[in-house]
Write a structure and sequence with these properties.
The complex is a heterodimer of chains A (176) and B (233). With 176 residues, chain A is of the alpha+beta class. Helices cover 32% and strands 35% of the residues of chain A. Chain A has a single domain, classed as Gcn5-related N-acetyltransferase (GNAT) (Aminopeptidase, 3-Layer(aba) Sandwich), CATH 3.40.630. In chain B, helix 2 packs across helix 4. Classes of the chains: A alpha+beta (176), B alpha+beta (233). At the A-B interface, strand 1, strand 3 and helix 4 of A face helix 4 of B.
């Protein structure tokens, strides 16, 4: 468990699956997700079970009073090149814009830089998802490029922002 | 008649923890190794069903019993506790372990023929408070690595670890015929180092930049104890 001032992170449990299904079938929540097919209970359970043998690591974001509000994950760690990509969803809509995501990402960054000794954390984010971009910027990420027509979604090719934070930038932020 | 035709099952000495695994079919698979197939030196003994299930190494306040599949719930609790993980020396890559992941871990521990894991239990009431074991068992050279964790924070500082380590050393030297038991310990884990010294381990070296923790490379000690030291101490 990793705890901050607003949220803590814990391992996912089988009992969380119905909530995940709710989140991933809500068009408003999934509007900007890079991969957002409708997910049934069984698919979600299969996904949950597949996590054990994958290098994807999923954490649950919980408020300090124990309410599950979203997921945060390390999607892949490239150990040789010391970099990794992450993904996040705040599934509970009334918990948007409360700083939960920013704090969860900051906690995870601390873990990835200070314990896993990685050099670069990166992610893609829909160009139109300004709220997420602001959250990533607050956590220390920088826009490093735009992938034009990176994804087809809703009948339209969408642009993705590529963002990243380097180890030195993290250390500078911590020193401030 | 060749060795393969003998109606005797062959077991590894250290396979006996597996006979308390719940799943009977799984047990059968683990335990029955035909003679002559094994690349390791086998020890032949008659399989007396559950005679070991209650086997326990007993001290004054704690005992050691073989790790069982259902201990996964205790392990899950201990290895999700940041206070327990804090000084372990980054043995675990991740800090949030799910039940399913821990199950896979326990399966692997039980299947490992070069390891023998015990759960440390309080003799009074039988509550599990930690895990201890010998891993990387090298039968040719009679040496093994020791690992120990007291997972129940409320039992810290009561000398439970010392007692458990004593029991394990007795098991390793007297029952397994080991000559040397060694361990790795993070150099900032002063409580553990004190415990190992008390049990007779001596520092024999320092692994420089052994692991990454708290934003920098950390050193670890290697400590060991020989059977002669154990017997004279």
């Amino acid at each position: 468990m990793l705890e901050g001032k607003l949220v803590r992170m814990r391992a996912p449990q089988r009992a969380d699956i119905p909530l995940f299904v709710k989140w991933f079938n809500d068009p408003e929540t999934t509007r900007f997700l890079l991969r957002a097919p409708p997910m049934g209970m069984e698919e979600e359970e299969a996904w949950y079970e597949s996590l054990v043998n994958k290098d994807t690591k999923v954490f649950c974001i919980e408020t300090l009073d124990g309410r599950l509000v979203g997921n945060l994950g390390i999607i892949h760690i490239d150990w040789a090149n010391r970099n990794a990509d992450i993904g996040i969803i705040i599934g509970e809509k009334e918990c948007w814009s409360k700083g939960y995501g920013t704090e969860a990402i900051t906690l995870l960054l601390g873990y990835m830089f200070d314990e896993l000794n990685l050099d670069r954390i990166w992610l893609y984010c829909d160009m139109e998802n300004l709220r997420a971009q602001r959250c990533y910027e607050k956590s220390g990420f920088r826009l490093e490029g735009i992938f034009r027509h990176h994804r087809l979604q809703g009948g339209k090719f969408r642009d993705d922002a590529a963002m990243s934070i380097l180890r030195q930038e993290w250390l500078d932020r911590k020193a401030r | 008649m060749g060795a393969n035709a003998l109606p005797v099952y062959t077991f590894y000495e250290n396979a006996w923890s597996r006979d308390v695994v719940d799943d009977a079919a799984n047990r059968y698979r683990c335990m029955r190794i035909p003679l002559g197939v094994s690349p390791f030196t086998p020890c032949i003994r008659i399989y007396d069903s559950l005679s070991h299930a209650k086997a326990m190494l007993r001290g004054e306040r704690v005992g050691l019993r073989p790790l069982e599949t259902q201990d996964v719930y205790s392990l899950l609790k201990w290895f999700n506790d940041q206070r327990v993980l804090e000084d372990l020396g980054a043995e675990h890559t991740f800090f949030c372990v799910s039940l399913e992941e821990e199950k896979v871990m326990v399966e692997r521990m039980l299947r490992d023929v070069h390891a023998q894991w015990f759960i440390i239990v309080k003799l009074e009431g039988g509550e599990p408070i930690g895990i201890i074991g010998l891993i990387n068992m090298d039968e040719r050279n009679a040496s093994a690595e020791m690992r120990v964790v007291i997972g129940e924070i409320k039992e810290w500082g009561k000398g439970m670890g010392v007692e458990a380590v004593h029991l394990l050393l007795g098991y390793g030297f007297d029952s397994r015929g080991l000559h040397r038991i060694w361990l790795r310990v993070a150099d900032y884990n002063e409580r553990a180092i004190r415990l190992y010294r008390k049990c007779g381990f001596v520092e024999e070296g320092r692994s420089r930049h052994d692991h990454f923790h708290k934003g920098r490379w950390q050193d670890a000690y290697r400590m060991s104890i020989l059977d002669s030291e154990w017997r004279s101490g």
